[in-house]
UniProtKB/TrEMBL annotation, chain A:
The keyword Metal-binding does not apply. This is Multifunctional methyltransferase subunit trm112. It comes from Penicillium bovifimosum. InterPro entries: Trm112 (IPR039127), Trm112-like (IPR005651). One of its GO terms (biological process) is rRNA (guanine-N7)-methylation.
From TrEMBL, chain B:
One of its GO terms (cellular component) is eRF1 methyltransferase complex. PROSITE patterns: N6_MTASE. GO terms for molecular function: nucleic acid binding; protein methyltransferase activity; S-adenosylmethionine-dependent methyltransferase activity. GO terms for biological process: methylation. This is Methyltransferase small domain-containing protein. Belongs to the eukaryotic/archaeal PrmC-related family. InterPro entries: DNA_methylase_N6_adenine_CS (IPR002052), Euk-Arch_PrmC-MTase (IPR052190), SAM-dependent_MTases_sf (IPR029063). The keyword Zinc does not apply. Keywords: Methyltransferase, S-adenosyl-L-methionine, Transferase. The keyword Signal does not apply.
Amino acid sequence: MKVLTANFVTCAVKDCKTSPASFPLHFHDAELEQEELEFQPEFIRNILPRIDWPALCTTANELGFPTLPESKPEGDKLEDEQTLKDLHRLLLETHVTEGKLACANCGHQYSIKEGIANFLLPSHLV
Amino acid sequence: MLPTPDTSHVSFDTIYEPSEDSYLFLDTLASTSESEWLSERFPSQEASPLVVEVGTGSGVVLAFASAQSQQIFGRRDILTLGTDVNRNACIATRTTATTAINTEQQPSPQTVHISSLTADLCAPLRPGSVDVLLFNPPYVPTEDLPSLPSAAQNDPALAEAMSRSAKFDNDSYFLSLTYAGGADGMETTDRLLDAIPDVLSARGVAYVLLCKQNRPEDVKERIRGWGGWQAETVGSSGMQAGWEKLVIVRIWRADCS
């Protein structure tokens, strides 16, 4: 599961969807793996408009990544190769292979095994 | 004809084997009319689309959409994600998608499969996040709808500890989830349709396969009744007594184009 995924998922419990605390989900005990992928600056620039920046900063912090800029890169910063390379590494080259994703609203933890996160709910939460 | 992604690594004990419906999906996405429509909907100077398949099974459809992104969407910088209630299907999809991308997109693969998630439909997806939703549902009318598996039923350790007969029951159960659609074959599709307005982005579009018994014309009428939504048949196969056996319906917000 690539780290970028965390920017697109929230708690599977219906009642949590409206709570701001359900996004982003929080990583616990995450084990990471790096996969080398060709760096494509244009792709990163086209992904950026879709990124929720504060959520990504939270995720990066939980995974022990060097601090991201406080605000989303815009204008000249989009030409800065190092910034785009850092994002490429975090979003596309980093996989979470084991660990948990927890909802800060209901406290439910979703487990990640061999890179597959399991969002099926126990019957009492459906 | 564009090549069909390789699924020779997939064990079809619990996973739906690509069939007529899967191939209709590939042909529809690759058709000139759909690729033109999609390329216009997602121009290359705009943000990368997120393409999500719900109920991926072997992953053949999502892998095709990923590997043939240039032909289908007119751009390669797309992100793809799959969900399935069967963990085995998620593992299979990841391999099918990444293999197809690496085979078809050389020297430099560009499309990225970001993950396969074990989930019920789009339950964990953030509202408004999906640009293209693909769904080949369990559409066969059946007396009962099998219950959804729990997280525990997908525990890999569980399957390993099973006796032969328990494994057979377990495999049959997971296979029933791939086709059994309950009343009119629509119980699962109806839940997906209900989720569409929330999960699709403003420019979002969904492709849903229906069979004759699902009453596609009624389904399209219902969607048009949501207000601001369009639904059209964009692919079909297998004439039976003057009716198409299978159709693919495109569903999109009319107020955005």
